[in-house]
Amino acid sequence: MSSYRRWARYGQSKLANLLFVHELDQRLQAAADTVTVVAAHPGVANTNLSSGFIGPAGPMRTVVRALQSRISQPAAAAALPSLRAATMPDVRGGQYYGPGGLGQGRGAPVLVSRSRAAYDDAVAARLWQVSEDLTGVTYPDLPAPGEAR
Predict the structure, then answer these.
(1) In terms of residue numbers, what domain contains 26?
(2) Which pLDDT score, from 0 to 100, does residue 26 have?
(3) Among candidate residues 82, 41, 87, 48, the one with its CA nearest the CA of residue 68
(4) How far is CA 22 from CA 62, 73, 76, 111, 130, in A?
(5) pTM assigned to the model
(6) What tens digit of pLDDT does each residue of 36-60 get?
(7) Is 97 noted as a catalytic residue in this protein?
(8) Is the pLDDT of residue 70 over 80?
């Protein structure tokens, strides 16, 4: 049995979010719906959420905290990409917002790019189908792109 790698799983969950947003945007466009679907990420937020991940007290923890303060941003700043995506009139469906600084870790919210994997139509459609199957929630008014309504 393989070991649980929390950061790998975290990355997979974020990719799944982007794939779901991609599929939802495609389905809404196919249905000629006017709903706008966008995604956003906060970058690296300096919150207590990561406190359990930086190890036990000691010199290494001090170093990690010092580095974290340089690459992260306050929680209020981390909320700005979501606010921009939700409220600005120039936002278009399928876009993705995050901090504009080094490595998208901090900075003013800007339009950012997704990985190629986040645009995989086949994987997005499969995730949609699995999500419907597992939850029992279906969206008959949102057929897959190319399907008749």
Answers:
(1) 6-135
(2) 93
(3) 48
(4) 40, 27, 27, 15, 15
(5) 0.82
(6) 999 999 998 888 766 655 666 677 7
(7) no
(8) no
CA 109 to chain centroid:
14
Q: Which residues pair with 109 in a beta bridge?
A: 99
Q: What is the pLDDT of residue 138?
A: 94
Active-site residue identified among 4, 10, 119, 139: 10
Residues contacting 21, CB < 8 A, separation 6+? 37, 38, 39, 94, 96
**How many Cβ atoms sit within 10 Å of the Cβ of residue 88?**
11
Kindly provide the residue ranges of all beta strands, DSSP E only, lying in the chain, ordered along the sequence: 39-40, 96-99, 109-111
| DSSP symbol at 45 | B
With respect to residue 145, please indicate whether it lies within any of the assigned structural domains.
no
Q: What is the CATH number of the domain that holds 69?
A: 3.40.50.720
* Total domains in the fold of the chain: 1
User: Is the per-residue pLDDT at 20 higher than 60?
Assistant: yes
pLDDT of residue 40: 98
